[in-house]
Design goal:
three-stranded antiparallel sheet, 2 helices, six-stranded antiparallel sheet, binds fe (iii) ion, mainly beta, single chain, about 140 residues, globular
Length: about 140
């Protein structure tokens, strides 16, 4: 057995701090669990290779290797960068049963996960573009 990996520290900030650091759109999505309008996100049609990080805290969340065009209007991934990087929680708001995807590190809302993905586990991570920052590689 090797060393147990230290749990990444959870980032906690006041609403004022988040409001200062994020754009109004990012604040609406990440901290207010909002949704950007479909087909508007800057990263929707980006094909560059790299890592998509949380726009709130910088955690590495999705690799471009897992990105695909779902036709939904939001950046879509068939898996997270690491199983523990994205926290999944049942979300029964808006009269639907969905699974919310949030950044495990800062708790920022990213989007939702559906079961119609193309990969081996059948998942579609439907993620707001403004919740992500691409670091091209
Ligand atoms: Fe985060």
């Amino acid at each position: 057995m090797g060393w147990r990996r230290m749990a990444e520290p959870r980032i906690r900030k006041s609403e004022d701090e988040w409001r200062k650091e994020l754009t109004p759109e990012q604040y609406h999505v990440l901290r207010g669990r909002g949704t950007e309008p479909p087909f508007t996100g800057e990263l929707l049609h980006i094909d560059a290779g790299g890592m998509f990080h949380c726009a709130g805290c910088g955690a590495a969340l999705f690799s471009s290797d897992a990105k695909y065009d779902s036709g939904s209007g939001w950046p879509s991934f068939f898996k997270a960068n690491a199983p523990d990087s994205v926290k999944l929680t049942p979300d029964d708001s808006a009269g639907m049963h969905r699974i919310e995807a949030a950044c495990a590190r800062c708790g920022g809302h990213l989007g939702h996960v559906f079961d119609d993905g193309p990969g081996p586990n059948g998942k579609r991570f439907c993620i707001n573009s403004c919740a992500l920052k691409l670091e091209e590689q």
